[in-house]
């Protein structure tokens, strides 16, 4: 099996206890921008889990509901890694150990928080544009690799970086947005979908993007260790996936 990453080139509040503070990194990212990245990812994960995400290829016009979708935490270590990739201005994936989404564009007059929201919405918007359908085994349909990375069930952490100081290339791209993803434990985690240990990073060939079913209504519906159910969001909340 192999893991695939995707590249895109284009001109709900955090749960109690969650933090997006990475002040020790001393870079241009702010906690506000980090929160936008985190919230926008979780909003999409909740939308999909509750069966509210439009999918023109799916039965009934909406993506199947998810029974074990986990609410993401922000990860400062992933931000550090994403920064190293973004600062290369390479317009290509790093091929590293983490799941990864890339957004390259030329922006003028946008604040970083606006860029953050735009990037995640463009990635997740592939669902409505191309459709995935009822078959959730990756790879799904062409052009949806960013979307599947955003809603990959086994992901528990995300960290992102925006570099708006790249030299424009022939296409005029000056800004790069990188988000990286991983499970709670790089050496394997017990996820909400299974009691077995998994050690993949998302967009993994032959794996299910997420488990179909009614979203959680009570804590016992969530299969991960000591997880609680955020019923209004349809997400399982994993207190063990602490921010670093």
TrEMBL record:
Signal peptide residues on this chain, from the entry's feature table: 1-16
Domain of life according to the entry: Eukaryota
SUPFAM superfamilies, A to Z: PR-1-like (SSF55797)
GO CC annotations, alphabetized: extracellular region
A Pfam family that the UniProt record links to this protein: CAP
UniProt keyword terms in alphabetical order: Signal
Protein's name according to its UniProt entry: SCP domain-containing protein
């Amino acid at each position: 099996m192999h893991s695939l990453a995707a590249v895109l080139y284009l001109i709900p509040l955090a749960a109690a206890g969650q933090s997006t503070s990475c002040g020790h990194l001393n870079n241009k990212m702010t906690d506000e921008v980090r929160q936008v990245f985190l919230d926008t990812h979780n909003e999409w994960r909740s939308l999909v889990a509750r069966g509210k995400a439009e999918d023109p290829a799916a039965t009934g016009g909406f993506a199947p509901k998810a029974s074990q979708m986990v609410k993401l935490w922000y990860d400062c270590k992933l931000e550090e890694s994403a920064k190293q990739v973004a600062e290369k201005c390479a317009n290509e994936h790093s091929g590293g150990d983490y799941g990864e989404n890339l957004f390259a564009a030329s922006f003028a007059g946008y604040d970083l928080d606006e860029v953050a929201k735009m990037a995640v919405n463009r990635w997740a918007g592939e669902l409505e544009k191309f459709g995935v359908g009822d078959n959730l085994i990756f790879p799904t349909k062409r052009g949806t690799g960013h979307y599947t990375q955003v809603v990959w069930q086994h992901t528990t952490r995300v960290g992102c970086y925006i570099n708006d100081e790249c030299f424009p290339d022939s296409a005029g791209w000056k800004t790069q947005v990188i988000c990286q993803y991983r499970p709670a434990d790089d050496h394997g985690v017990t996820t909400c979908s299974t009691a077995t240990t998994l050690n993949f990073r998302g967009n993994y060939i032959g794996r299910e993007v997420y488990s179909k079913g009614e979203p959680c209504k009570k804590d016992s519906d969530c299969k991960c260790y000591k997880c609680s159910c955020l019923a209004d969001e349809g997400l399982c909340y994993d207190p063990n996936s602490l921010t670093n």
